Amino acid sequence: MADKDEQAVGIPGDDMSNRTGFAKLAKSAGLSPGRLNGSGPIGVIDIGSNSVRLVVYERLSRAATPLFNEKELCGLARGMESTGRLDPEAIASALSSIRRFKALAGQLSVKDLHVLATAAPRDASNGPEFVKAVESITGVPLNMLSGAEEARLSAMGVISGIHLPDGIAGDLGGGSLEVIDVRGHDVGTGETFPVGGLRLEEGSQKSVKKAEKIVVESLSASKVLPGGEGRPFYAIGGTWRSLARLHMRQKGYPLHVMHQYAIKAGEAADFCRMVTRRDIDSLDSIEVVSRNRRPLLAYGAVVLDQVIRIMKPSEIVISALGVREGHLFDLLSPEEKAQDPLIVACEELAWLRSRSPLHADELPAWSAMAFEAIGLDETEEEARLRHAACLLVDIGWRAHPEYRGEQSMNLIAHAAFIGVDHPGRAYLALANYYRHEGLIDEAVSQHIRELASTRYLERARAIGAALRVAHLISAGMPGVIGRTRIEVRDKALALVLPEDLAPLGGSRVARRLGQLAKLIGLEPAIVVE
Asked: In the predicted model, is pLDDT for residue 12 greater than 70?
């Protein structure tokens, strides 16, 4: 008979007799073993001019993973252009949402709750009353961001989610647009412009033509945007994500991952002008944009088109990370900020899902030796991706052997990784596929292949072939692979084993080594010394 605590873990009324082992595990762990311990869940309530959102992250980390994410489009800035005040109905909606978010934060055992507010509460005459009500509900001080601080945190969000960014970050909300120059971990001085979607909708009396004149007049004063010529523009904000989602669907883009979706500047400008000319509901694939977002879509397109005209960027890159993630990035230590977010995310996934994270950690150095032996040069970015691929190599081991390659490929391609662009995702996904399936393409997703360059594809096949050899020798366990070498010897690609590891060689290892050797036209050889 299970005790009361064990029964509480299961479904009420369930017979726990055959599940007491699971119940005891759950009780002793305190949370799912599929989650990482640390500082505990950290939550951010983000109060914007159009939306109010709660995001709870698993823990404070260089690669913070959302545990829960919910938003409400409350429209706090609606009517502010004429009244200067937050709309009473919008206030009621926002406060109701914040009460729910506070309850959810408790349910999720949030250890640290942060409340941020931006343009609408900052600029409204009744903003202080609203702030007082929010603080009463949440029990924590509200951090009212200035325009300059909002721009800086947006830049920090880009830095936290994009590897070595070099361009202009722009965060479009319901009330304002913030722009700031970003170079690596350095940010410039931010600018704020009153051209948010809700403010434009009201100020133009819902005329896109009038809105365009307002935007032209406002952004012509920018000192930041002209400095971005020939560099990417990092677009942040729900309206711009909706535009990108529509573009993605109309183009039949193979990967439905918004972060670091890139559009060439000329193509983006043409798309924005098409959106502003057409009736929104008549646009192809408009169903991918929520009805609540559609009224502001044309205004977002007007602002982006003018940004492109002034800045002349190389491309538009969507950043799913902004003020919230920038705020969390600010909380990290200097050592944590210096970490690579992709490598951190892959290390965490290896810890959660591989047979041995220690073995995964041995593979980057071993695979670098293999690449040198077969004569494959790498850029710094390619070496970084190979490192990440090694960490992910065994995350699919629980799947049925017939489907490990396909399932791992899909998991990686669609994972919530940051710090990697879409071609890089394809490299990682394909490397894991080839590691499981060998150098055959029968079941590989053609959509994923389309995203990888010929160079990336060649290196994904090579790392896959090398890791197939490594796993036959080590069985996925640590302490073995680092004692072996791969080198060219007597016109053969040789796997060199120490004498005590000689039994680990064999015909299967030779066949897999042969696949790797075939990439450079050599025969395989297993050497014991």
From this structure: no
